[in-house]
Structures are given as C-alpha cells and as structure tokens.
Design brief:
heterodimer, A: 7-stranded mixed sheet, 4-stranded antiparallel sheet, B: mainly beta, globular
Chain lengths: 114, 113
C-alpha cells in the first residue's frame, strides 16, 4: 500500500459538465501520474507531475488538465466532459523499489459521462 | 514508437498447473524496466514482478518468474502452482528512461478448480 487514495471512487455526470478527480498521497512522493483504462487499450498516460506546479502531458492529454499545488494532491480536471471520457481513471506514484523506480497505483475512479 | 504487445487476450489454467503469459515490446533504448501488474476483479493494480534490462538474471517472486529475452524483446510471465486467487487480468508494462509506463492490452487469466 503506497498510501494513495482517489476521490470520488464513482461518479456519474452529464456531457458538458466539468469534473475534477482527486489523487491524494501521504508519503511525499515527487512523481505522480494519471492514467485512464479502457477495454482493449490497457492503461494510457494522461498527464504526470514531477513536482509542485510541474506537470507535463502524456499520450492522451486532449480534453484534460491537471494541477498540483501541494505535494500530496494531484488533480485531474475534465473541463467539459464528453462520453468518450467515460473510463476508469487511475492515479499512480513512483517509488524507488530495490534500486529502481516503480509505479504503484491508487484504487481507481469509475467515471460515467451520460 | 515504443509499444507493448500481449498477443493472448484470454487464457485459462487448471489449479496447481503452470501457465505462461507472453509479452513483446519494441524500443530502441538499452536501459529500461519491465513489469507485470495484476488486476483482479477489484480493479486494483498490483505489482507482480519487475525486471531491469541490464540484468541478465530473470526475476522471481515466489510462484512468479519471468523469462526475459532482451535480444528478442520478449518478457513472459510464468505462474507456477496456479491458485484460484491468481484469476485476474495481467498487464505487461515497459518503462523507458523517461520513467513513464507503457502498457500492453492485457491478458485475462482464468484459474479453474
């Protein structure tokens, strides 16, 4: 358990509404990541952060923004949700394990956009 | 482009038997890490095993071991003495020098009693 929580765990929203997902970690990890999981695609990186106020885009960043004002919190925002953003969203942190960086995941947030 | 391919969408194995899940990847980098993650019905992503590309020795974790063939860019997972709790989706993932993870599409494993 890498001390990662995600909120909410489930959310149903309507097309066009803004949505913010929160990832919270308790162990002062520098690197944090947001992924989405869809059938047939595995997990794909949306955005990541390498420190407070330091973020960068991943593979599927269109339609998403992120913010990190504190080490412990990494927020993912869908400015105007679309049905194609229905997915399961995972947050992850990177931790040194046996001399190498390894990512550990939160429990996930299931988002349904109607 | 760096890609990870899992060619077996679904597999099944009898309890107590051995099963091997396949994974291939494509990269031009020399230093990287490879991972297998397990995702049970709870949807939690759980690290199973990790392999450093610079190490020739195959990683093992209890009943889980890998066959890492760097030249062939192959990274298979062997589960020995399969247990009902091993039923899950298994993802192979590749981490280049940037530290990001690139995942395969997953293999659903069913362990039958």
């Amino acid at each position: 358990d890498a001390g990662i929580t995600q909120s909410p765990r489930h959310k149903v929203t309507e097309t066009g509404t803004p949505v913010t997902l929160r990832c919270h970690q308790t162990e002062n990890h520098r690197y944090m990541y947001w992924y989405r999981q869809d059938p047939g695609h595995g997990l794909r990186l949306i955005h990541y952060s390498y420190g407070v106020k330091d973020t960068d885009k991943g593979e599927v960043s269109d339609g998403y923004s992120v913010s990190r004002s504190k080490t412990e919190d990494f927020l993912l925002t869908l400015e105007s949700a679309t049905s194609s953003q229905t997915s399961v969203y995972f947050c992850a942190i990177s931790e040194t394990y046996r001399g190498g960086e390894t990512q550990y995941f939160g429990p996930g947030t299931r988002l349904l956009v109607l | 482009a760096q890609t990870v391919t899992q060619s077996q969408p679904e597999m099944s194995v009898q309890e107590a038997e051995t099963v091997t899940l396949s994974c291939t990847y494509d990269t031009s980098e020399n230093n990287y890490y490879l991972f297998w993650y397990k995702q049970p019905p709870s949807r939690q992503m759980i690290l199973v095993i990790r392999q450093e590309a610079y190490k020739q020795q195959n990683a093992t974790e209890n009943r889980f071991s890998v066959n890492f063939q760097k030249a062939a860019k192959s990274f298979s997972l062997k589960i020995s003495d399969s247990q009902l709790g091993d039923t899950a989706m298994y993802f192979c993932a590749f981490s280049p020098s940037s530290g990001k993870l690139i995942f395969g599409q997953g293999t659903t494993l069913q362990v039958k009693p």
